């Protein structure tokens, strides 16, 4: 279906109009060599001309060598009929994110990336196919903002079984990843100049999202046990308290029950919501999982979960658990954001969980990640001895390494990068600056032992030659 | 010790039963700080469970900080683990959208729904599977906000070939459906109290989205040729002009070239952007294609496209074409909305287009929809004769029916609904009210001839018995 126009008010015969437009498109490369032209019948229908008109235009182009064709096999644009244009169609600005080359030799300790080569492709692919082929055809229509009931039901069972999170499927809203969950919370709870209590340090992007909706952040210092709840301010009304209690990001602490209770009591006193971001607590290497804040105070806790770490960030599947009072408004906001999260993927995931594949995958990956974590620690101790301290490694896909006497300035980080290693400074996630300049975040989820060993060795070498 | 119970008929593991009861008793103060728990051996005997079950339950409570203990000294309830009780969480409030029953006997003339039973399930399912199984494993990682280059490239070729839209792949941002494209445009272009010129009537949801970002709407009356460009206001600065030129929604007109030029000249004079929403122009039954506004004025037109009508709304795949000056900011906004649109679906779609399946599917569906449209018109004329006028049926998946002397009030629409038919009043999409009270929107994309015939007959019966 070539895009052609017919103008009957012109003096130019229709055959000529079609011929000229096709010729131009072939000359300027819009229709490139090998492109199969629509059949004369379908083009004639499309342009509302007689089929003979199209036949004659095609014949002329065939005769002139722009087209080639065989009886029964169709008509194609011939080779060598493209004339390079002098001027570009649009002046185009090259953008960093497209033009940047991925240097495959770089060893990247970026946090939060699962082992991409161990994604359960086959199971997922099979399920995706069967969802597309076998489900009732209503699946392909518009859906409801909160997400498919199949996924919400199986997820509510799963969360109770594995995380002690108690929720009715109606309290769940499936989101296009945890990032969308954060923006929905911001829209739901933040009015201009509202205060939000937040851990410091905390993911830089989360700060940006809340601030972009007008929040002013009240940072609370984090220690090895997470947010220091004894530091909560008095007499200040806050929209909500944002916390990563299972595995503080980036510092890695787990909030003990005493602090959880202090936090809840504070939220009650101040009549504030709690936002609990639980992004990777499935990978806990020491001790059993810790109960969620949501399970302790379901009426004022909003819980954010994601499948980015336990499966793949490419799926963009996350969820919110809401207190009943916020459900209706959140569904509306989701509706006006993107109507709903793609249905076929939701259904694929619900089958993946129902078949037990998710729990098996997590079980398997936990062993892989524990091994990688242990190996990374071993390498760090081997290379740096007592010059390195490791924190926050009980859970998840990253750890914090603190280096005696080394300050990770932009200049140093850039040198390390030039030497083929990417590490991430804690300071890029701090609100009050300067306290963590000798701490870096080392993700190990997507690095095998060879890469970890090379990475740590190269990293040391880079530091020594600074 | 009768204070713990074990129920072997429950699905809940024994460890979890013991853990939960102890935790509850600690949280509610029944077991207070310093209380010494029975030894694991004696509790196990008492409950007639294996000692390991009790050990694991204790371990979990120790890890979470509810208990503390030392080798040989016993296990005690920890300080600060008591949470004052609040009133019970409200038993769950049923929500309309979940509890409402789908009445399958209702014949629903909702617009914009493609034929769901003709979605190319098999091709899509095969491609989805092969994407999951065969693609490089980097596919499963985080991706860039603008979307996969495979999809943007093939889409840029497709748009040039079929719609005369000229764009570099870098000008495309893949969105989670057209709704997200609209919210990105709102974030990109609207500041508080900005004026936006918009067609009247126009999709109610679009009005809501722009208003929720602070826009004040300047409605321009629509006639059978779309937006009446002679009515543009003078001397008022506007953020952008929103227009559905290929197929005005809902009235169905196609903006002629003369008005397109007037619109562009106005936008140039006022230094305003144009937002062109092209949601279903692939299904054009009459008249030659008219050049897109984007093709005529790429420097100030933002073009919105979607796969919801030509494939399925469940995919949530849409896109924006941006002038180079807006690309960077739009990618940032997309990043902070949901990072990016799901990667596997993007890649599946790019293969679907590359293999030629999309164009074949559109070609096939155009015939189906044309037949359905013709049949619907025939039924309307048969039942209502010269009491009905039909508008805006040259393109797309719906038409407008105007009924002589019938006013579609809420009461009448509700009666029609009770009689098993859903039709949609144009008035719900108007800004200036009262001009279209005898017009309704009839979607036919997802209705076969039996349903159309029954629907129109029942609709007439319902009107006669009012």
Q: How would you explain this protein's 3D organization?
A:
Two copies of one chain form a homodimer. Chain A has 15 helices and 16 strands. Chain A is an alpha/beta fold and 466 residues long. The first copy, chain A, has three domains: 64 residues, Winged helix-like DNA-binding domain superfamily/Winged helix DNA-binding domain (Arc Repressor Mutant, subunit A, Orthogonal Bundle); 118 residues, Alpha-Beta Complex (Aspartate Aminotransferase, domain 1); 237 residues, Aspartate Aminotransferase, domain 2 (3-Layer(aba) Sandwich), CATH 3.40.640.10. In chain A, the strands form four sheets. Chain A has an eight-stranded mixed beta sheet, sandwiched between helices. In chain A, a hairpin with a 3-residue loop joins β1 and β2. Chain A is globular, with a radius of gyration of 29 Å. About 4% of the residues of chain A have low confidence. Chains A and B meet through α5, α7, α8, α9 and α11 of A and α3, α5, α6, α7 and α8 of B.
